[in-house]
Write a structure and sequence with these properties.
The protein has 189 residues and is α+β, with helices and mostly antiparallel strands. The protein has one domain: Gcn5-related N-acetyltransferase (GNAT) (Aminopeptidase). It is 34% helix and 32% strand. The chain contains 6 helices and 7 strands, in the order βαααβββαβαββα. It has a 7-stranded mixed sheet, sandwiched between helices. Strand 4, helix 4 and strand 5 form a beta-alpha-beta unit. The chain starts with 10 loop residues before the first strand and ends in a 6-residue tail after the last helix.
Length: 189
């Protein structure tokens, strides 16, 4: 493997630093669309001190691997990605959010997904990685499918946004699917 473990083509995954990263997350949370894309809870911005405390608690959990997504070009923090691992099953739940709008739809999120998959399968030796995504986020669905995720289920009309009910999709990728795609270059760019 020639590429450093936590580097992609556009981004690198860096250690989460509550002291500095809480401010960026707080800024991103001022964007209601960002909040609606990353969570099913009502869009409620939080203070930097609340975000810092949440980050510190997250880092204290042994089964949590959380990273800040930084651009390779200028080392700018643009989002977060993480894996919440269930060691007994050798699987993880993945979460990702890009807070800087100018990086949306330009491959940065897809690159971060490829990097976290490589980390999960090559470094943590996971068997499976799963995620949930809202029907109203087709950009994310395309990025996940491009990275090798398969739609495995659908929860009908479980999210309400703007007076309408939307479905949620449950997606997953198995280690052997990732290995096959990675070996053939399907998930490289």
């Amino acid at each position: 493997m020639n590429t450093p473990l936590l580097h992609g083509q556009l981004v690198r995954l860096a250690a989460l630093n509550p002291e500095t990263d809480a401010e960026a997350v707080t800024r991103w949370q001022r964007d209601a669309e960002f909040l609606r894309l990353v969570d099913s809870e009502p869009a409620v911005p939080r203070s930097a001190s609340q975000n810092k405390a949440d980050m510190e608690a997250r880092l204290a959990r042994e089964n949590n691997f959380s990273f800040v997504i930084r651009t390779l070009a200028d080392d700018r923090p643009i989002g977060f990605v993480g894996l919440w691992v269930q060691w007994i099953h050798s699987d993880a739940w993945m979460g990702i959010g890009l807070g800087e709008r100018e990086y949306w739809g330009k491959g940065y999120g897809a690159d971060a997904v490829r990097v976290i998959l490589r980390y999960g399968f090559a470094e943590l030796n996971l068997h499976r990685i799963s995620l949930g995504v809202f029907e109203y986020n087709p950009r994310a669905i395309r990025a996940y499918e491009k990275a090798g995720f398969v739609r495995e289920g659908r929860t009908r009309q479980d999210a309400r946004r703007d007076g309408r009910h939307w479905d949620s999709f449950w997606m997953g990728i198995l280690r052997e699917e990732w290995e096959q795609g990675y070996e053939h270059g399907a998930f490289s760019g």
